[in-house]
Design a protein that fits this description.
189 residues, alpha/beta, 7 helices, 40% helix
Length: 189
Amino acid sequence: MKVLGIMGSPRLKGNTDLLLEEALKGAQSRQAEVEKLIVDKMKIAPCKEYYGCLRDGNCVIRDDMDTVYPRLLEADGIIVASPMFFYGISAQLKALIDRCQALWARRYVLKNLPESNKKGAFIGVGATKGKQLFDGSILVIKYFFQAFGAEYADELLVRGVDKRGEIKDHPDLLKEAFALGERLAQRLG
């Protein structure tokens, strides 16, 4: 089984990255093969609404998304991690998600994306403690997963953590991330 981690933070070795690493270790501990994409290191243009994807399910824009689509389709599990920027996911991650309009077209317009038992999880990290901090992001991630047939199966939502590496002061949250990865792999196995 394959678990794909999508790191949506531009801050390497920051809180979001450290939590995703733990989640991937948890999945690995259950014999999952893991891979991590660092979205900020990729060249991904935003969706331009050319609608070429409605013809054949492929985006007409050529960039690093060409390597992302097959990884999403091959993965059994996906863990998306993002910091909260103004109560939403990072712009880098949003560009990747918006470009998955091509997968949506394959599934819902062309009807040539087979059903799957994929499972997905979301790790959100925010500096504030607002009650609705994750509401919009959860919806975006749920619809992202739905575009290619993955079930939104788990989440870890962390409030009040901001400084780089501050999550290390919260070993309980690192353990929760590891457990999230374990649970995801168990549900896939």
